[in-house]
Structures are given as C-alpha cells and as structure tokens.
Amino acid sequence: MTPRERLASARLYLCTDARRGRGDLADLVRAAIAGGVDVVQLRDKSLSTLEELRLGEVVRDVCRTEGALFAVNDRADVARALAADVFHAGQDDLPPHVSRALLGPDVVIGRSSPGGRQARDADSDPDVDYFCVGPVWETPTKAGRAAVGLEAVADVRRQAPTTPWFAIGGIDLDRLGRVVDAGASRVVVVRAITEADDPQAAARRLRDRLPG
Ligand SMILES: Cc1ncc(COP(=O)(O)OP(=O)(O)O)c(N)n1
Ligand SMILES: Cc1nc(C(=O)O)sc1CCOP(=O)(O)O
Ligand SMILES: [Mg+2]
Hints:
The protein is an alpha/beta fold. The chain has helices spanning 3-8, 25-34, 49-66, 76-81, 96-103, 116-124, 149-159, 173-182, 191-194, 199-208, and strands at 12-16, 39-42, 69-73, 86-89, 108-113, 130-133, 165-168, 187-189.
C-alpha cells in the first residue's frame, strides 16, 4: 500500500510534543503504535534543526519498524531529509502547491484548518491529501488559538469532503464520543497519549472508540 492509501484508512494520529523529561520518545512512539496509532508526527517547537533531524531519524525508524506513517511538521527540508511519509503544514506555513513542488508526488501532504472556508479550500486543493479541523476545544498544547467547537466539526461533516479529514484539539477519551457524534471518524491527539501513564492502553482505548 502507498502512504496515501494508508493515510486514507488511518483513524488515530499522534503528534508528539516536547517530552519535558517524561521518558524516552522512541518508547512512547512504540507503545502508541502498538495501541493502534496509524500516523506519528514529530512536533516539538523547542528543537534546533539538527536536533529535529536526529530525533526524526529515531522516530522515523520506529515508525518504519512498527508499521506507522511518519510525519514531519512545518519543515519541508527536514521532511525531505528524513524521507518522511507525511508533511503537515498549517495556514501560516508553506502553501500546499509549494510543499508539493518541494517534496514530489508521493509524499502525503496535510493542512490545518479551523473548518469553514479553509476546510473547503483544503478539500478542493489537489495537493492536499488530508486536512485537520480544530482546535475543537482550547488546548494548552496550542495555547492562544480559539476553539472552533463541535459545530465546526459538524459543519465539515455536512460539507461531505472527499478528502480524508481529522478533528484535533483538546480531544481525550472523555470527549471522543462527542467528536465522533459530530461527524469525525479520524482524530489527532497529543496529551491524551503523551501524558498517559500507559500510552499503549490510552491509544487502544481511543482507537477502539473510533469507527472503522
Ligand atoms: C495533524 C496536525 N494537525 C494540525 C497541526 C497544527 O498545525 P499548525 O496550525 O501549523 O500549528 P503547529 O503545529 O505548527 O504549531 C499539526 N501540527 N498537525
Ligand atoms: C498541534 C495542534 N494543532 C491544533 C489545531 O487546531 O490545528 S490543536 C493542536 C494541539 C492538540 O493537542 P492536544 O491533543 O494536547 O489538545
Ligand atoms: Mg505549523
């Protein structure tokens, strides 16, 4: 299966965050994948370029061995250097056509959106392979960004996108049912897995409550 085909069937996407001394990142990623995570994004705004490259090699190799897609955030040069499966860019990052020109036809390209027009634009953009809608709830992981609420998720669902899309922001096991009821069948999480005592069990519980 190609990375694009694998992304289409992905349900649970983990963004790693700064670990703040909470153990080994490779162990966390291994556990998360064993629990059912399909995509792992290295997202740590505190890293230097060289640190991101080195840590990215570690996370990529775990993803390859354990069978998850490996994603790089923001930096197309780092994505290319690491032969990442997925590159994720937000509204203030590289536009999709520029990412595509830099990374070639096979890399899966993701785009953030708050829903609404940006979600429609992402859905109709031939260079976007998936998009995200969020933050559904305010979250300390992305402080200062206003919540778009479950209404934005329901609105995107009504748009009936043909592009795979994920809900993101403040999602945990308690809230997952409401996100699914609003129409999402794929979610991205950070703390729900990175801050869990047992990341494998946390991922498993989330995965088991997602459709498909
Ligand atoms: C899978 C996924 N979805 C959304 C984001 C957020 O991207 P962005 O808005 O560019 O914010 P930063 O993560 O760069 O702070 C993401 N990284 N991954
Ligand atoms: C990285 C990121 N992007 C968002 C967006 O809305 O685009 S919300 C977010 C952080 C999600 O972290 P948590 O699962 O810990 O709330
Ligand atoms: Mg970004």
